[in-house]
Description:
The chain is α/β, with parallel strands linked by helices.
Amino acid sequence: MIIGIDIGSTITKAVSIEDHSMTRKIKTKAVDAVTSAAGALGKMMVENDITMRDVEGIMITGAGASKIKNDLFGIPTAHIDEITAIGIGGMFLSKQDNIIITNIGTGTAIIEAKQDRITHLGGSGVGGGTILGLAKKLLLTSNFNGIMELAKSGNLNQVDLLLEDIMETDISFLNREATASNFGKMLDTARHEDLAMGILNLVYQVIGMISVFAAKSKNLDRVIVTGNGSKNSMGKQILSTITGMYAVAFEYPQDAEYTTAIGAGLSWRPD
């Protein structure tokens, strides 16, 4: 059994890999890198009756991976860079080997993954951290579930400048309901619900557009979405609207939030 651990800036994930398949998965809150890695490993072992003798090796990746200098609990421990792990995990979950992967975490990374090469195309600082940071100032909360609940009844017309506000006809392939400027209207009557929806719309529209540009630059018509942001149902709706305009489909593999940890575990090669 191999344990793959993804030490993120807010959440640490661990998976067990056996016979090239993911068999177990867990999440823990990140405190510091060493505590997070040890805690994720311990939780995985305790909750699943795994002993140290059962674990052949541990592969670590993510933002905090460089803080782990030695083997964990005497188990052979190695590192893999996060981009490579995302690429391996994304190909495994999507069952495709020529893909664009958009990994939405605190920020967003865009990756081209092929069997012979994994390339970091770029990304954006816009991601889950943007939602929480803006909400903390504009909505006076950083509770993610609370932000999503507010956004459900939000009205973008109160916040965003739409094409219909400045144009009397459609422009190119965009209809008059398309966004002309995120937060470009900001009426005095905007409620917290409207602001929450505006924040979510801003983040997922930016992510969607950089994903579209990446896919089209490689002559591909689909994007695999991974990371914690892949689970956001309202974000998916926003990306679906982008699909309708640009004919680039967004796909969400099962267990996509564990992609990086899965890629780490699958990359283990015994000496």
